[in-house]
Amino acid sequence: MAEITREVYAVSVDRLQKILGNFDENANVVMHELGVTLRVEGLNILISGGEDKVLLAEDVLECLVELAADGEPIDKNRIMYCIELSKEGRAKDILKLSGSTVGVTHRGKPIKCKTVGQKRYADAIKKDTVVFGVGPAGTGKTYLAVCLAVQAYKSKQVERIILTRPAVEAGEKLGFLPGDLQTKVDPYLRPLYDALQEMLGLETYTKLMERGSIEIAPLAYMRGRTLSNAFVILDEAQNTTREQMKMFLTRMGEGSKMVVTGDATQVDLPEGKKSGLVHAIGVLKDIDGIAICRLTDKDVVRHPLVMKIVRAYEQDDKRSESEKGEKR
């Protein structure tokens, strides 16, 4: 394939520096991932290489110019995500993330959606009454939900935040652990404590817990209650049974919002028990006011290796299903 050269105009020195990164680290990511050569002439970035790769790099750099103009941070993860989108012909989708701040930590650090899937999920939580966030580990399902719950509480849209998880053992029996029931279930709820403390700070978090404005409890504690004027999050919902899921969803009272999160590929229920999350998605998918957001490996925002691990397991699952089909 013949080599070509295209150029992207960076508009200003400030944008050019943001795009290239410290010591050209951002430029090196583009060159390494797409197999092109970049060089700078004035405010122009010249891209050389095979035609297909150059055109991909051009799409990526043009998007980075626009993100820089919007004051958005440009780092390796964002560039890698933009490259992923460009390979699908969707590079411009990353521009939807401009101004996608959903909250701030107690230290004032803005919390932003890092993928298009996360933005869609956050928008659904703001708009709909019940939202299912389904996807693999590391996609920010719980973190974003907690962040938006805190924002809703601060803006007085709700009076309480209620977070719950099913206490399902993953290989270790609760009965063999030391302590009372609360001590035994605390490890299951730890991710929720951590997220809330990051949003509110330990002192505010402790006060709100003591006041009852924040409640964190096992799913079993929800039975028989009506949850009004509350932002309610059910985490790890893949480990609910059909009956538990129905019980939870029917707790909703006036002025409440519910977010249900889970990963349908990590079910720890006893064999033969169908996940309440999987069942609910099928039954409730066409009801107005209920949104189902499916996050994928492209929405993983942890270490880049996590995305590769998720994909490897997905491919292995597909192979296993294919082999089962052939045996039949």
In words, what does this structure look like?
By secondary structure, the chain is of the alpha/beta class. 45% of the residues lie in helices and 18% in strands. It has 11 helices and 11 strands. The protein has a 6-stranded parallel sheet with strand order 8-7-9-10-6-11, sandwiched between helices. A 3-stranded antiparallel sheet has the order 1-3-2, with helices on one face. Strand 9 (230-234), helix 9 (242-249) and strand 10 form a beta-alpha-beta unit. Helix 1 (13-20) packs across helix 3 (51-69), helix 6 (141-154) crosses helix 7 and helix 9 packs across helix 10 (276-284). It is globular, with a radius of gyration of 23 Å. The two termini are 45 Å apart. Mean pLDDT is 88; it is low at 169-174.
Kindly report how far apart the N and C termini lie: 45 Å
Described by strand count, sense and barrel closure, the largest sheet is:
6 strands, parallel
N-to-C SSE string, H for helix and E for strand: EHHEEHHEEHEHEHHEEHEHEH
- Large-scale geometry: globular
Q: How would you classify the helix and strand content by structural class?
A: alpha/beta
Number of E strands: 11
Helix % is: 40-55%
**Mean of the pLDDT scores?**
88
Total count of helical runs of at least 4 residues: 11
Strand order of the largest sheet: 8-7-9-10-6-11
Report the β-strand fraction as a percent range: 15-25%
Gyration radius, rounded: 23 Å
Q: Could you name the ranges where pLDDT drops below 50 across 5 or more consecutive residues?
A: 169-174
